[in-house]
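Marked as duplicate of an earlier ticket. Keeping the data here for the record.
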Amino acid sequence: MAKSTLASMSKEQVLKIALTAGKILLVSGAETYRVEDTMLRICREGGMTTIAAFCTPSLIMIGEETMEGASLMYRVTHRGTDLTLISEVNDMSFHMPTWGKSFQDTMAILEEKTMRKPRPAREEIFWSGLAGAFFAVVLGGGPLEFLAALLGSLLSMAFVKAVSPFRPSSFWETTMAGAIICLTVVLFRMACPDLVMELAIAGGVMPYLPGMAFTNGIRDFMAGDLLSGTCRAGEAIFLVGGVAIGIATVLGILYL
């Protein structure tokens, strides 16, 4: 079996590779225990035995457990969901025992993944609209609820994508999305009185419910990462609250 080229790299280079891989995972929505495990695996293949990693949903730290040891830290300010990147980096880390690329080539691969263009906004808008519409049907809605949820999800996601360059917090994004969906459904009902608003609103907001964040929080709890689990579960509850506040605000203004 060929020896990994990581063993011939300096400690600083190995740490840089590990931190970059962990950053890609965390920004893409990976569980914190997966981030830590990936970074530690890379460092051990580089011959670093006294190594420790610490990760929260907004911070990564990795370094040697010695007074003279090198360490690196990265602050995460914006996260999303990209299962393709998580799978690619995770697979890459498991190939580290036979890794044959130089430090420059390895960093070039990771930088390509970091700089990869996201999916076109129009695709996310389209699929979010369909998801909301079909959820309304699953919840018991008919053609009117399907159309109202479709329109609400499309408009709300278009708004979210339009303001995304300004990097608003996820709470304000979901709050405004809930308000836009509720307002759209209310206006739709004025034209079609037979519309069941509850089903249309419930279906429209489904793309914004943080199911993955809550699931990752539970998995972090199960892995023993109590701090990360608490943060992710709290974030999920906070985002759900944002959706509810947006809906309640519109209903309160229009019906009180």
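See parent ticket for discussion. The chain has ten helices and three strands.
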